[in-house]
Amino acid sequence: MKKVISYIFTGIIGGLTFWTVNYFISSQQHISNLSSTNTQNPIHKVNYASHNLSLLNNDFSTAVEKSINAVVHIRTITEKTNILYNPFSSWFFGTQPQVQPYIQEGSGSGVIISDNGYIVTNNHVIKNADKIEVTLNDKRKYTAQLIGTDPSTDLAVLKIDEKNLPYIIFGNSDEIKIGEWVLAVGNPFNLYSTVTAGIISAKGRNIHVIENNPENGNFPIESFIQTDAAVNPGNSGGALVNINGELIGINTAIASNNGAYQGYAFAIPVNVVKKVVSDIIEFGTVQRAYLGVSITDIDANFAEEKKLETLNGIYVHDVLPGGAADEAGILPNDIIIKINEINVNKVSEFQEQLSKYRPGDKVKITVLRKNKTLNFDVTLKNKKNQITLLKKESTNTFSLSKLGASFEEISSEEAKKLGIDGGVKIVNLEQGKLMAVGVRKNFIITSINKKKVTSVNDLKDILEKNDNGVVLIEGLYPNGIRAYYGFNL
């Protein structure tokens, strides 16, 4: 009897086990079929067009083919000097300091944006370079001409003398989405034509990497695309592309504790790049538009302090009298929420959108005022509070090509105060020989190669008659600190 009961119990358990396994398999097949059906969803097809198969297989070869030949390797050569100076021997024996030249090299990446040789890269890649060499993916090598720079966005435009070059197509950085696949193409650690893949991790990042130097008119504009595609030293100036092989950003910086990739890379949005590059090529300088407002981000604490009922948008602290916003009717305490129907929730996003326009352009600014939505048609202005486009500021012809500076003679009062006979002050400083050796704005030149300098003509005559190309500049800053700089012309 016990055996019969045991057999019956075993049979029941076996039947239940069979039923459970069968149900589990059926459920898994059902889940698998749902997944398969979802991949055929018409919305999915619209989002990814003809790239479904490539995405599912992690195959980005089409995007690589469209972009890799347009990314170049950049090698920079900068002439540096060491000054071997002994104040004791100079004072007592009249010996002149020796200038010891040496070469400093750098490298990075660039992106060909036209078939006739225009290339975009980072300003920090080519900064202060005396010579720029560009090597294409097919190993052809060229000497590049620097067309112009924009330190505020860390962008520069180069030109090589060639035609029918492979170039990259611009995408639209306003349309990219967090989580979207991207590729970084560049030359990390001089490993030419390296491609890495990742996703867009965030948008509108301000990481305070671009120099803020109001004295030189440099006000940083940062609204980076963040990605986890591997980017390392040498990738700067290279391409960030979408799965269609279109340029959506210029790789610029990484966040790292050791100087190498740790999962956080940042690129300048291509819509900013397009505007800057176009201005530099067409006008020689960037035509930057201003709204004429003082603004700040809104967070929970700020909203509570100001008794705001929203965390969205940008808070307007103040409005410049006679500025674009003032003339349009925007007021302090307004909250800017859109520029031409594009949402702006951070100052960095505001700057990104505004950087796409020129003085004289009309934009629609949407604001919240006492919980009411208002639209204003605003005509943007330049930094001089005018609607006209600006011409590139010219400096002394000789200094522009060699020294990168403009000068003025100091007054007799300033000379007397400093205890000198006279001198020439640097009133504007750009990329060139002086900046490369560390000279700062407002430095007063009192002698060049032991010859007294009291006027701009003295400076020009000495430099133009320099036979050996070695230049030793002596002078002082307005605080009385003396300094010596040397370089080769």
Order of the strands making up the biggest sheet: 5-4-1-2-3-7-6
Mean pLDDT: 83
Q: In the CATH scheme, what's the topology name of the largest domain? A: Thrombin, subunit H
**Which band does the percent of strand residues land in?**
25-35%
CATH class designation of the largest domain:
Mainly Beta
E-strand count: 25
Specify the CATH architecture of the largest domain. Answer: Beta Barrel
Helix tally?
14
The low-confidence parts are 1-5, 16-54, 394-400
Helix content: 25-40%
Number of domain units: 4
Task: Please tell me about this protein's structure.
- The protein has 4 domains: 2-40; 53-285, Thrombin, subunit H (Beta Barrel), CATH 2.40.10.120; 293-379, Pdz3 Domain (Roll); 397-488, Roll (Pdz3 Domain), CATH 2.30.42.
- 26% of the residues lie in helices and 32% in strands.
- The chain has helices spanning 2-39, 42-48, 52-56, 61-67, 87-93, 123-126, 270-283, 300-306, 324-328, 347-354, 397-401, 412-418, 433-436, 456-464; strands spanning 71-84, 98-112, 118-122, 131-135, 141-143, 145-150, 155-159, 181-186, 194-205, 224-227, 239-241, 247-254, 265-269, 293-297, 314-319, 335-339, 342-343, 362-369, 372-379, 405-409, 424-429, 444-448, 451-452, 470-476, 482-488.
- The strands form 4 sheets. It has a 7-stranded antiparallel beta sheet with strand order 5-4-1-2-3-7-6. It has a 6-stranded antiparallel β-barrel with strand order 8-9-10-13-12-11.
- A hairpin with a 2-residue loop joins strand 22 and strand 23 (451-452).
- The radius of gyration is 30 Å and the shape is globular.
